[in-house]
Design goal:
The radius of gyration is 24 Å and the shape is globular. A hairpin with a 2-residue loop joins strand 8 and strand 9. The chain has 540 residues and is of the alpha/beta class. It has 19 helices and 20 strands. The strands form five sheets. Strands 1, 2, 5, 6, 7, 10, 11, 18, 19 and 20 form a ten-stranded mixed beta sheet that branches. The longest helix is centred in the middle third of the chain and has 24 residues. Helix 4 packs parallel to helix 7, helix 10 packs parallel to helix 12 and helix 11 packs antiparallel against helix 12.
Amino acid sequence: MRKLLAALLLASTPAMAQQAAPPVAAPTTRPKLIVAIAVDQLSADLFAQYRNRYTRGFARLLEGQVFPSGYQSHAATETCPGHSTILTGFRPDKTGIIANQWVDQRVGREDKTVYCAEDPSVAGSTSRAYTVSPVHLKVPTLGELMKRADPRSRVVSVAGKDRAAVMMGGHRTDEIWWWDGKTYSSYAGRAVPPVVQRTRDAVAALVAAPQPALPLPGWCRSTDRPVRVGDQVLGQGRHARPAGDTALFRASPAADAAVLALAAGLVQEMRLGRGPAPDLLAIGLSATDYIGHRFGTGGTEMCIQQDQLDQALGGFFDELDALGVDYQVVLTADHGAHDMTERVNQRAISDAHRLLPDTDARVVGEAVGKAVGFAGRVLFGEEGDIWLNVALTPAQRTRALAETVRRARALPQVAAVFTQAELAAAPAPSGPPETWSLLQRARASFDPERSGDIVLLLGARVTPIARPGPGYVETHGSPWDYDRRVPIVFWRKGAPGFEQPLSVETIDIAPTLAAELGVAMPGVDGRCLDLDPGERDSCR
């Protein structure tokens, strides 16, 4: 055996030496097009689960600069806050996007809930029937800074959700389009380019026809197991869809493919990346999130989605290659998630639970109201934030705050409760995000103008869906790492690749891209990541 091993080693040495190649030099020119892709709910865990199965788009990106342990480091791991960090370089405490929605008792309408991407001053609007707007985003995006540096730069944003398109596009988009549940929409008064109308027509025809079950890749067979969730049995779906079902369309691979087709069409029609100044294309792919909420992350539904998304990304990159555009890609996610409780329980984790009814803010509020002698509604709750009714007297407010904190901290599924005063006094977090305390994580998404009087954080592995139903069995939004960790991957043709397993943050993306473009981005929370594995520093 020793002689055989020695012979094999000696025989392989010359061949290995011949295969050795000199290090690849990084490009020295500026990219002409930035392509920033956010895959909604693509957790670092999901990415790790499927990365050895990717063969097309993701496989190409894995040849680039890979940061598998990126962080949406704040506690409010929701769609709107997450997207607001990607191209601004700021955490939600600075972007002002503390949640998907919050309560503002000062707004001049009966509905006091405010959606993160709406203009609540529009007459007749509500948090559900709203006018899409970037008015709540407090900071500029990379695209806006590119336009300041050279007004000839163009910014285009397309997504499966309005809040994804708005938060990555910012305040000065040349084109912005999102799926509104029925078709692709934009701000009022915007002209509809021919490529958008063609996409609308093609998708309308697609949705109008029934969708047969998609093929199941052989490597997905291990996920093909039924799981009972309430009155449903999930885990074996293949995205079959009856004619006209827009809800199932958005929770299918076809939704992401349509957004990528629209993005490619706008690149062609607007000649993005071929003008005198660099352009930016932001793409929000939302189907992974809708599929996760509707079916969980561990069944055939998600496995097929990962395969189909990989193929769609590959086709999109092929289209860009054919145009001869020098483009720089970054792909990340707005947040992570873990699988639905029932399947997690089946797979060796018995301490995952759904929310108990007594943890609901309305239940706590009723008890607090009786304790302080207030007949009306004492508490308003949204996404872990709790606001005290402004109609309370100062004495009632003091008592209500103390009583709410006391009762909330006594709940068995609550990990931490912080008041506005405690969060305001906490210093801005720093250091590796995985080492942060719960207070620091909550501080990173705390805005004193918008956050609740109390911020409540649920314990690990508690899913805040007490009664799962059709379309909603799994979610995110916690301060725990399964919701915070996301992949961050950069790729550019000719750029040498590497993998860095240590943690970075999504707020590092914008200053990194700004350095690639030579655009100044001072004062942000994030830092530039050196994408050159050699002696050259791409941040200088």
